[in-house]
Amino acid sequence: MAIAKAERLMNLALCLLGTRRPLSKRELRESIEAYLEAGSDDSFNRMFERDKDDLRELGLVIETVENLDGEVGYLARRDSNRLPPITIDAEEAAALGLAAKVWQQARLAGAASGALQKLRAAGLPEDVDPYEAHSALEPRIPVHETSFEPLMLACRDRRPVVFDYRKATAARPEQRHVEPWALECWRGHWYLAGWDRDRGAERVFRLSRITGKVRARAGKFTAGVPDVVTVRETVAGWAGESADRSALIRLRTGAGYPLRAKAAHIREVGEGWDELEIPYGHGLDAWLVEFGPDVVVLEPAELRADVVDRLRAVAKG
Fold it and tell me: Environment class of residue 205 by beta-carbon count within 10 Å: exposed (0-12), middle (13-18) or buried (19+)?
């Protein structure tokens, strides 16, 4: 069975590398004997999807292309799967190993391993083990959200998606139609940047607020993908990281540690409350609402009004 699968993967890789145009599933099935022997269309589709994922984990860059008739095709461009001769010293190999170890417990573990295999084929010394160097360091990026994998694949394949999203100020989620651009981790949370079709503008979504399944949709992107997607800068701006003003709030003792970490000054006022001076930037009102009854805004007046409006919207449902 192992030999049969290896032969099937090799034949699929050769087909994808040898074509100058995208090949549809039908054409690939007609070109590979093992696929012709599949008992049904469902059996073939499952086998093909597994093989495609296995080749990607081995490091093969497979592109998904949709033609004018809406038919999906696949190819592996030689220039995308070829590395020039490279020279990597021990320190550079250690850095690559640490980067790969970040994903050893996540969905990207196969891609990280495949990248190192490609580097070995391109010149990484055989006597250098990037996983062993500086083994005392164990970098990790947590990925707990179930929406991470489908969104990662949608970003890679340039596929529009639909999901239910609950804003911080909303009692119930609402459906969003998004063209996903990039995923980034900031302060321990994952965020998706993309084009919101319903609002006709760029938006950033926190993955922990996505409810239910992420569903892929057919069709092409309607908006151009920017060369640089500033996810962290956008989220930082919403969180007040680039603020040039200050706000004065009252915070319940023992609560709101993220707010305390950002505070310029903290003063005990008694009766279980502290007063904090924190940076005030765009989106601070949405963040303060998340702390519910543990926060009272004292000034400025416009921030207090914004927080009250958001709380009333949540109360009305």
Answer: buried
